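question for whoever is on the cluster today: can someone run the full assembly for these? four chains, 820 residues total. i dont have access anymore since they changed the login thing
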Amino acid sequence: MISTSRPASRATRTLSKGGEPSSTDRMLSLIAAAMDKAGVMTETIRLVDFDIKPGVTSDEGDGDEWPGIRQKILDADILVFGSPIWMEQPDSISKRVLERMDAFFDETDDQGRMVSYGKVAAVAVVGNEDGAHHVSAELYQGLNDVGFTLAPNAVSYWVGEAMGSTNFVDLPKVPEAVQKAVDILARNTVHLAKLTKDNPFPGEK
Amino acid sequence: MISTSRPASRATRTLSKGGEPSSTDRMLSLIAAAMDKAGVMTETIRLVDFDIKPGVTSDEGDGDEWPGIRQKILDADILVFGSPIWMEQPDSISKRVLERMDAFFDETDDQGRMVSYGKVAAVAVVGNEDGAHHVSAELYQGLNDVGFTLAPNAVSYWVGEAMGSTNFVDLPKVPEAVQKAVDILARNTVHLAKLTKDNPFPGEK
Amino acid sequence: MISTSRPASRATRTLSKGGEPSSTDRMLSLIAAAMDKAGVMTETIRLVDFDIKPGVTSDEGDGDEWPGIRQKILDADILVFGSPIWMEQPDSISKRVLERMDAFFDETDDQGRMVSYGKVAAVAVVGNEDGAHHVSAELYQGLNDVGFTLAPNAVSYWVGEAMGSTNFVDLPKVPEAVQKAVDILARNTVHLAKLTKDNPFPGEK
Amino acid sequence: MISTSRPASRATRTLSKGGEPSSTDRMLSLIAAAMDKAGVMTETIRLVDFDIKPGVTSDEGDGDEWPGIRQKILDADILVFGSPIWMEQPDSISKRVLERMDAFFDETDDQGRMVSYGKVAAVAVVGNEDGAHHVSAELYQGLNDVGFTLAPNAVSYWVGEAMGSTNFVDLPKVPEAVQKAVDILARNTVHLAKLTKDNPFPGEK
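^ ran it for u. tokens below:
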């Protein structure tokens, strides 16, 4: 099991202001519930509430709130990266977070392993219409490049019909196919995170 | 007006076999009808019916049927590139056609202009769910790289709700938003093709 | 000619701080010089110097500096969108700007034409290694979706060899192939912008 | 250890004809050598030598040579997917293979696990200039969607400077950074494949 004393974290991000309900939040809540059944505690971070500075290091100083978020990610075994879809692409806040994780390339142990090695990532993508797989493709590439492992079927997503404007948060009922994908994501990701935690990736020695 | 004696062509492609109705065909027919109103004659080429060899030149010999298709594209003023969505990406036949147009890079006049210069491209993308904008992004990049001009809103697309399996060809009625996008595409593309035909892009001297 | 009293603008963006030289700036300067020869005045906007709020409208209030940038874009006939490459994708500030232009969808005249119609976009993409074409693909899709026209070969780019760390700004000499691409971009974009300004896209009636 | 009696396979693909040396082959050979050190036997399949029909099932009949390739993939524990870069995108043969693996969605055991579950994929991407990360993004998404697991840093790639024409196969010496990436890929992928083989992903009950 993944230790609950070192709980799996989630990097939730949403552009919703204040107390507004968010479609991305709804998807992340479904994943959290599925992980909870597997004994994994989760914490949600609403990235829009933080001042994450542009930059290439892990601490850009001057009010940069990335260091705290980064620490939560490193304290957890699983990262569920939630992104809304904008222009059928990942949104600017998701991109900012990927950019900050770029620093992981230089943050290696004496065996050449990045600080993220052994952690498993999954993604949650929600939009009104179209773009979910492309967002997952971009996130997979970014997250894999900076050291995360990906279990099979590592995305839970929802989009409506082309040119529609329905929000996932407003659906009266979670579609069965979405719930099934959430369950698969949680099952595979938790299984793999336990394996990679108990059996660290080898270093270059 | 675009001359009907040098009619605008379309490179339709679809994986449908034999006489099966195709969702991509339906979208291309809508575009053809809209262009017809503007006096533009169109011709549909079902790429799946041709043996387009892999390769880097405009004629790979040995039964290669690309040369004939290439000539039709060059004889026309407009290229409407239809692609189904596979794995939320352009399909392999669309990619093959883009690869063959790669040869345009070396097919320039004495002013450095590719054979495609002055021609306007638009795309039609249809799938069961998700991926339309990413397909258009890839096609825009490929087509622009090989010399085509793009009018605003150069895509007509349809996809259904996430994880759905409805086919566009089976919709009882074309959604109003799709018809509107088709009309905009036809209007803008025909307008621009006339301009770029009557006013050729300048050469390097 | 494009009126110099209504000069073509550029939306430069870079993460360089203060007075540091920027590779993206260098590429934009090359384009500006090429456009200047064609009588086009340009203005460079360093997006990193502005506080562009997240949001879906053209004015998110509360210190949002997007409205001023938006006005400059609308006052110009050409938009040259410069983006560095991060994680082989467009950077977060470029994405933010695309998101804000999403509002153009609802900013149409009584003929259904977006405020951006008739404007021609081009892109400048610079990075240490890899990713330029993908960045151009994403920008083409976003810019075309929000109403911009694209001339053939609408990108000027430079990247170094895989896994390298050379900066474009540090190259002792601009590579001949880059200068050629810049000249083509400027020639085609200026030609097309004049055509689409003098011959507005038709409306829906 | 991964059983050598059930050796890890590779799906090499290249457009090189006959006996010509291929850049993609060179990269795959480096990976094979690194895996060999870890006791993993590999087999290379040159996809261009096979007639892989378009289609949605695992056997399209009529001379379709996909079934034999599919079986080799399923017999192995690791899939190294090699793709050249065309138009800065995956090439048409790589796309065809992804399309055929689409059938895995319906090929599940009584616990809902696809035939590919537990297998680890990695990718090798080689081109003259630009596009490697985007190709890896597309392959990651496609391979993950059809059930493969991805170890950290699952890509080995090489591209030259922008607009260059150097081939990887012609480099007098493999760059140190490439060899390092190859070693990391082999180390992580082999480690993870052993874990997921010995500890199958859980089913839905």
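summary bc i know u wont read the tokens: Chain B touches chain C at residues 112, 114, 116-117, 133-134, 136-138, 140-141, 144-145, 147-155, 183-184, 187-188, 191-192, 195-196, 199, 201-202, 204 (CB under 8 Å). Confidence is low (pLDDT under 50) at residues 1-7 of chain B.
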